[in-house]
Amino acid sequence: MKGTEKAMKVIYVSDTHGGHDFVKVPEGDILIHAGDFSGMGREQDVRSFAEWIRKLPHKHKIVIAGNHDVSFARMPELARTWLGDSCTYLENSGVEIEGLKIWGSPHHSFFDNSGTWVFGVRAGQEAEEAWAKIPEGLDILLTHGGPAGILDYDSSGNRTGCNQLLNAVKKVKPKVHVFGHIHEQGGKSEKVGETLFINAAVLDENYRLVRGAMVIE
Questions:
Q1: In a domain, 3, yes or no
Q2: Domains contained in the chain, number
Q3: How far is CA 143 from CA 22, 106, 194, in A?
Q4: Separation of alpha carbons 39 and 49, rounded Å
Q5: Which end of the chain is less crowded, N or C, counting CB atoms within 10 A of the terminal residue's CB?
């Protein structure tokens, strides 16, 4: 990526939903997972994911939770211990790695009434408050849900992204914004303005593994 002393190969993946062992992950410098790494956030699933990501050769590994990673919302301190030192976990927080400024959030647009999922934010003030935390000067913005109108079509043709997130991204102008959540648009990228948007979901809408991780250098 531009702005660093050397080219950094960043690998993006999202929505593995417990199927991480079968995902093709190329080698690179940084591995980023945009959430939904488990089915329901159960301890054995999180520990399995942690063991998998720990063994990968990437020097740096960044992870956020998604709406399926329920334990990270309901018992966050305990859930984080299950990940251990396998990765850097971000939750409305950031990290700088070899000159790259990365910030991550598990939130997504809350567009259904399911009581099972977590980290959803409703349109309006709730969403504005959530995304107001995003700082400026980012190289990579990592969120579970995506912005409105960009790689957010579901299988019914509905737009599912968040308008408030789109406004926030336009304001802070990260170089890359990576997300998942909407499986139908996985594996696609789109440049809008100064930002490269990436939907890194590897499963399709029927939860079948149909693609590997994405590479951006």
A1: no
A2: 1
A3: 23, 6, 18
A4: 11
A5: C
Identify the pLDDT of residue 4: 45
Residue 187: pLDDT over 50: yes
DSSP assignment of 62-121 equals: EE---TT-THHHHSHHHHHHHHTTSSEE-SSEEEEETTEEEEEE--EE--S--SS--SEE
The two tokens of residue 61 are 């590994």
User: Which domain, by its residues, includes 199?
Assistant: 10-216
Kindly report the CATH number assigned to the domain that includes residue 64: 3.60.21.10
Report whether pLDDT(74) > 70: yes
Q: Kindly state whether residue 1 falls inside one of the protein's structural domains.
A: no
For residue 54, what pLDDT band results from cuts at 50, 70 and 90? Answer: very high
pLDDT at 3: 47
The answer to the question of residue 212 being in a domain is yes
